[in-house]
Amino acid sequence: MVYSSFIVAITLQIIPFFPQIWWIQPSWIMILLIYWITILPNQINIGTGFILGLITDIVLGSTLGIHSLSLSILTYLATRNIYFFKYISIWQQSFIVTFLSFINQGIIFLVKFLMIKVFSAPEIFWNCLLDGGSWPFLVFLMRKIHRN
Question: Which residues form the domain of 38?
């Protein structure tokens, strides 16, 4: 169930929902990785984040290692604070997911800035808000699927 959901997340990451604003879409892989870390912290670890990052780099055609680095750091931060994260309300979790998404997007932007001199990326703020806003819906959907 875990790995099949990651395949669905990778597929959703490829598909642009709104072609006019293709750069604004939730980071499905990151959100699902955080979800599975909260559910199965002993099975989903930094290695899983690294492998998902490599797959994301290959599928999206970005520089190899950018998403691996960001998802590995994100996985470390999420597993470090898992017990705090599990016992707060869904809306507070949404704010933390927004913050983790900002860290993830910031690492990706910093590496791209150092490698190819990208100067401005204001869309990362919209993606972070979208990630935090889609967190409650993903949690409710995954709980419903997991129960059936």
Answer: 2-147
